[in-house]
Design a protein that fits this description.
Distance between the termini: 35 Å
Order of helices and strands: EHEHEHHEHEH
Helix content: 25-40%
Mean pLDDT: 93
Number of helices: 6
Shape: globular
Structural class: alpha/beta
């Protein structure tokens, strides 16, 4: 079992979201202000990293164990850190990091998502 998230390109995530057979669970770790600027097109579970002390104890009740998890942030750095934490704490075994974050998603998939 890997203790680092696998990288998922925006194109791979787009294809995964188009295939309804196993919809990934999306976690966005950006701050509220960032979501207002550039909301993700699909439904996400919003868990801002700055509020980890508020939600971390309930995380096992939030993250489904039967779906892959894709973690999203602005550039892919914070989401990678959070994905590492999920794996190291044994909360789930299949964790992906959106490579390049919402910024790459905007550039490669959906340019209606503002860049910031």
């Amino acid at each position: 079992m890997s203790l680092i998230p696998q990288q998922m390109s925006p194109k791979e995530l787009d294809e995964s979201l188009a295939n309804n057979s196993l919809m990934p669970f999306l976690i966005d770790v950006r701050e509220e202000e960032e979501l207002k600027i550039a909301p993700f097109t699909f439904k996400v579970c919003h868990l801002p990293l700055s509020q980890i002390t508020i939600w971390k104890d309930n995380l096992s009740n939030i993250i489904p164990i039967d779906r892959p998890v894709v973690v999203i942030c602005h550039s892919g750095f914070r989401s990678m850190q959070f994905g590492n934490w999920i794996l190291q704490n044994g909360l789930i075994q299949e964790v992906w990091n959106l490579d390049g974050g919402i910024d790459a998603w905007s550039l490669e998939i959906d340019n209606s998502v503002p860049r910031y």
